[in-house]
């Protein structure tokens, strides 16, 4: 049986409210083909510029009431 490898990038992050007693921790991940990384990165940069988001962005800056999801 022949196997084929695909080059991918996997990005994962965790999120928890600043309250250490919060019982919820969320871990998420995104996978993309390595050759698509520049295209995806450029699209994210354009999106951040269009909506005035600087630095890292998360749910608080990209939620439905604040951004392009309206």
Give a description of the structure:
With 70 residues, the chain is of the alpha+beta class. The longest helix is centred in the middle third of the chain and has 14 residues, at 37-50. The model has no long low-confidence stretch (mean pLDDT 80). The chain contains two helices and two strands. A two-stranded antiparallel ribbon has the order 1-2.
The secondary-structure element order is EEHH
Report the sheet with the most strands, covering strand number, pairing sense and barrel closure: 2 strands, antiparallel
- CA radius of gyration: 16 Å
Tell me what portion of residues adopts beta-strand conformation.
15-25%
Core attributes:
70 residues; alpha+beta; two-stranded antiparallel sheet; 2 helices; 2 strands; 26% helix; flat
Topology diagram in text:
Blueprint: E1 8-15, E2 26-33, H1 37-50, H2 59-62
Antiparallel strand pairs: 1-2
Describe what is shown at a glance.
With 70 residues, this protein is an alpha+beta fold. The chain contains 2 helices and 2 strands, in the order ββαα.
